Amino acid sequence: MASIFLLILLSPWTSDCTYNKKDVKKVLSFLSIELKDNFQILKNESGGFKDYYETFTLNISDNDFKLISQKLKTSKNFKGLFTDYNNMPSSNYKIYDTVDFETPNHFQREYFSSRKMENGTFHFIIQLDKQDKKLNYI
After folding, report:
1. At CA 87, angle to CA 55 and CA 50, rounded to 5?
2. What pLDDT is stored for residue 62 in this prediction?
3. Nearest 5°: phi and psi at 71?
4. pLDDT per residue over 80-102, tens digit each?
5. Could you tell me if 102 and 80 are in contact, meaning their C-beta atoms sit under 8 angstroms apart?
6. Which residues have C-beta within 8 Å of that of residue 52, sequence separation ≥ 6?
7. Do the Cβ atoms of 53 and 128 come closer than 8 Å?
8. What letters, b where the CB count within 10 A reaches 16 and e where it falls short, cover 83-97?
């Protein structure tokens, strides 16, 4: 009985250890983002008792970085380049808004969806780090 309780208690950390590329591709496909080349999962975390969250960081290819950044820059929701970090745009949860923008350091997409993922997630942030060519999902 104690081992079952221990397994339930440790399940969030166990699922982080078993997270794989198939799981990443499933999340990104929900966001209409496809990685064409090989990638590496650098970091992954999930949890929360009342509000579930999931984050991961990927090392992606130059080609995938170019494809995703171009997709964001040509989006109808692209707001431009923002150099003032105190005045950056954000999406509106009341109208399921999507906002794409660029800073000197990264490209970003933030949106709220009326559709929820299986885990209940409906608020998404994708950041592409310009210098390191990493994709951060929050």
Report:
1. 35
2. 96
3. -60, -40
4. 999 988 888 877 666 667 889 99
5. yes
6. 46, 119, 120, 121
7. no
8. eeeeeeeebeeeeee
Interatomic CA distance for residues 109 and 90, integer angstroms? 9
User: Rounded to two decimals, what is the model's pTM?
Assistant: 0.76
Count the alpha carbons within 13 Å of 58 in the hemisphere toward its beta carbon. Answer: 25
CA 86-92-97 angle, 5° bins:
115
The strand pairing partners of 128, in sequence order, are 107, 135
Helical segments of the chain, H only: 2-18, 21-30, 62-73
Q: Give the per-residue pLDDT at 42.
A: 94
Question: pLDDT class for 55, splitting at 50, 70, 90?
Answer: confident
Count of alpha carbons within 13 angstroms of residue 121, beta-carbon side:
21
